[in-house]
Protein: Branched-chain amino acid transport system permease protein
Organism: Aquamicrobium aerolatum DSM 21857
Amino acid sequence: MNQAMSANANVDTARQWLKRQSRWSPFEIVFWLALLLPFFLFPTYLPLASQIAIAALFALSVDLILGYAGIITLGHAMFFGLGAYAAALLAKAGWSEPLTGLLFAGVFAGLIGFITSFMIVRVQHLALLMITLGLGVLTLELANAMSWLTGGTDGLRVPRTWPIFNYFRFDLWGYTSYGYTLAVLFICFLLSRLLVNSSFGLALRGIRENVKRMPAIGSDHHRHLQKIYTISAAMAGLAGALLAQTTSTVALDVLSFTRSADVIVMLVLGGTGRLYGAIVGAIIFLVARDQLAGINPQYWYFWIGLLLMVVVLFMPKGILGFLSRLAGRRDND
């Protein structure tokens, strides 16, 4: 009897916590409104803002598996690249409608993610790193070998994307591109927010903290990991499709290890397991890269490495984790 009452109390506590987490704070509303400022204050930087939104969506997809489920990956660019090539090849086949191309790329990347998830969920730690890295390298080499389809090292030229809803044309200044990428990012963020603030999200946190204890409470952790890995792959495919549609070109670097490593750097900078860390990290990384490359095109990554070391040493939970800790201290004071 007492055990049943204790279990019900724990369930109620979990529900109340999830309800609190689901509420929107004023800071979140201000944050999303601030992302509209480039339209008015920095119109010349709209192409960069589009790239930031795409990178943030890619980082968000990785955060779902790394920050919440504890799946460490060094090859998630595989799904980003597959999404980019899927959208590009569909456009070259004569169908350049952006929304259906986006959906096609997401479904294709998600399908490959589901197939590979059967390997991913059965290994951990170093073996997981090697498998994800190996899958990424194999996909890159396969794309290079199939130059008749992918364009190989020459890249793939994507036909001009049709207007969104047959009304919003992609312009040279980047207004439509940024609005499009920002809208997709916001929708995926909302879905991710609902996902992590649910019982499924709590199960993922439990797997991250101690995967061996989950079967003891009746949780099928393999199936949970397969689900989130598939969702993450589909989301990464959407990011890749956005890149193909907004830049009208796809190169082999969409599948490169560097792209997978860069997104990990973004998450370390912003903070994992926070969702907003993916967006903040993408903003910091790409703005820093843009400014540093203008100062020194050859050695800009040196300063990124220095910034990364400072964050890891003094802000191990990322910039958002550091700010959250500061806010907690002020509240206690």
Summary: The chain has a mean pLDDT of 88. The chain has 14 helices and two strands. The first helix runs from residue 2 to 22. The radius of gyration is 20 Å.
